[in-house]
Amino acid sequence: MTMSSFPEEPTIVDANGPGEQGRRRYNPPEEEHPPTPPAGTENQGFGVGVGLGEEEGLCKVLGRERGRRTVLRERVKLASQYHFYMETQTALAIPDEDNTMVVYSSTQYPEAVQSVIARCLGIPFSNVLVITRRVGGGFGGKSFRSHTVATAAALCAFKLGRPVRMYLNRSTDMIMIGGRHPIKAYYSVGFKSDGRITALHLDILINAGISPDMSPLMPEYIMSGLKKYNWGALSFDIKVCKTNNTSKSAMRAPGDTQGSFVAEAIIEHVATALSLDANSVRQRNFHTYDSLVMFYPESAGEASTYTLHSIFDKLLTTSSYRHRAESIKQFNNCNKWRKRGISCVPLILKVAPRPAPGRVSVLNDGSIVVEVGGVEIGQGLWTKVQQMTVFALGQLWPDGCEFLLDRMRVLQADTLNLIQGGLTAGSTSSESSCAATLEACNLLVGRLKPVMEKLKQQSGGGVSWDALIAQAVKDNVNLSSSAYWVPGQESSTYLNYGAGVSEVEIDLLTGTITSLRSDIVYDCGKSLNPAVDLCQIEGSFIQGIGFFINEEHETNVDGLVVSDSTWVYKIPSVDTIPKQFNAEVLNTGFHKNRVLSSKACGEPALVLASSVHCAVREAIRAARKEFGSLQLTFQLNVPAPMTLVKEMCGLDIVDKYLMWQVGSSSLKRD
Ligand code: MTE
Asked: Which residues line ligand 1 (CB under 6 A)?
């Protein structure tokens, strides 16, 4: 395990050319060096980093084209975000007979809560039953952080021998739960005069807080989000830093959000340096199918499933991107104190379905209970599981059996009744639970088919569900079936594609940002439920605007959280939603390795909200052009609230503005 968290001088592939001459020590200018932290803060790693292997291979084979190249270096910073679920962390622990404990926990991971409690109390896992009926929003914050509250409640209940209920008030929750990982990324990018990027080196510092939590996975997730463009030669050094902050944890699209944003910041930097339209630089660096396979070797899938190019083109047309970009230029020429910007951002996000259990049981009266590993956290998992059950049992009634919807109940997660429930996260729990349900239903259908045939022969006509079940009960058919769905090798990871265009207006005097319009196209495969998926896409996009523009989960130098209430921390409101918001679920037909051809949708669209941030940057650039006082190349960190927008436009200090207007020398004479 590495305990030094800061990079030594890494060797990068320079854009000057191949061979030894092209390799040199990377010595960033003084201010670019990652700052040395005070002792006891950012000085210990969790042992993750220094390349992930495959990219080192890429350095050897790519980035060897001839032509004029330029190298740019910069730093980008992204802050933290709090989950702000409606229901804060809570648990009710009830001691039971024979040294056992029943715990109702608001968690995305009942199985892990069970094991942590059992180990804390020193009793077998089988003595702890964790029940999760549903969760009042989790967004990743109840994946690994709910254990603390549930275990504390269980310990008290164990010691006192009586039920204990525990819940966090909002302020305590905001202080304890940690939120998204802040990062600092230092990059050196080499590119040609046409905007083609040939080499990229990154040094990334991830603030993990006081304990590892899921932070060791962050480098992989960040790089996965960043690899959406073909960088040519790519090398990186990522350090997961132990700090004096509360432990950071999973939050909707962890890592992908940060990595994808860093990618956009680099593209915009290159475009400005070359005075090119950022959109054309984006497209120039899109993956071909071959480079996609090289950057995502296990997940790229078949060439026909790589839909990003067509999505991007479609979106540019449906959103009238080019026409609007022209109108924005005119608007900006005619308005001094208000500026507009527009930006179109692509999305590639890798997901990895996990194994999941499912059980379907039919009771003697024909009512059905379904149990699955996934937890309902507001993402519509139960709705999809119900639909899947009806779809699968419908094989017995080719004309459909929607009437079964009213006879069905999805049960709460229960760690002793259905084991190996796993973690609800990563946007694939709904489809995994559906896949397990489908397998369990198929077993039932296999058992019920002979009974059906027998009844059909006897009656010579149709058979009702009640008659079928009554006969199956008489015939001693096992009416409960279980399955444990394990994704095959080809289903173990896959890529999701989408794109978003956003247009914003900023008020230079106040820094206010107005989201005028956003258009999203997202490839859902064959959506399991387009209504649910559309809401997920829209919801995650708005949560993303919160992250990129407004929300900052701030910590002071002592590591104490200062954004600990709704007075100081503002989540998106109705004003944050773009005035015109068009989200489209793209139905891309048959995908043989997906669950009924569907694709994930819970997290990816959050990443597309970076289009709003990029549009704000465009608008600020127009303001800087207007006053001719500041450089057009600049970094805009995340979040970018109104105070920062005003500052970046150079209008936060009146004196500064007057200096430009009348000339600094005359002002000094006065
Ligand atoms: N939607 C609501 N309403 N509430 C939530 O907590 N969590 C998101 C997303 N959508 C969340 C949500 C996160 S972080 C994930 S990973 C996915 O739902 C989980 O959905 P899945 O069942 O498809 O994996």
From this structure: 137-140, 252, 374, 377-379, 381, 424-430, 536, 602-603
349, 256 contact by CB (below 8 A): yes
Ligand 1: nearest atom to the Cα of 379: 1
Residue 342 has pLDDT above 70, yes or no: yes
pLDDT at 2: 31
For 100, counting Cβ atoms within 10 Å of its Cβ (0-12 exposed, 13-18 middle, 19+ buried), the class is: middle
Q: Give the mutation target among 143, 177, 375, 377 for probing the ligand 1 site: most ligand atoms within 8 A of CB.
A: 377
| The pTM of the whole model exceeds 0.85 | yes
Separation CA 215–CA 45 (nearest Å)? 10
Ligand 1 pocket test, candidate residues 89, 109, 134, 139, most atoms within 8 A of CB: 139
Q: What is the pLDDT of residues 488-537, one digit of tens each?
A: 988 899 999 999 999 999 999 999 999 999 999 999 999 999 999 999 99
Structure tokens at 196: 């083609």
Å from CA of 376 to ligand 1 middle: 9
Q: Residue 374 C-alpha to ligand 1 middle, in angstroms?
A: 11
Amino acid identity for residue 420 in this structure: Q
Q: The tokens of 294 are what?
A: 């090289």
More confident residue, 651 or 426: 426
Measured between alpha carbons, how far is 352 from 374 in angstroms, rounded to an integer?
Answer: 15
pLDDT of 440 above 80: yes
List Cβ neighbours of 259 (8 Å cut-off, separation of 6 or more): 221, 222, 223, 224, 225, 226, 227
- Which residue, among 424, 391, 421, 419, has the nearest Cα to 405 in the 3D structure? 391
Tell how far the Cα of 433 is from the centroid of ligand 1, in angstroms.
14
- pLDDT of 5 reads 35
What Å distances lie between residue 591 and 135, 391, 602, CA to CA?
31, 18, 19
Residue with CA at minimum distance from ligand 1 atom 8:
139
Which pLDDT does position 663 carry in this prediction? 64
How close is the Cα of 415 to the center of ligand 1, in Å? Answer: 20
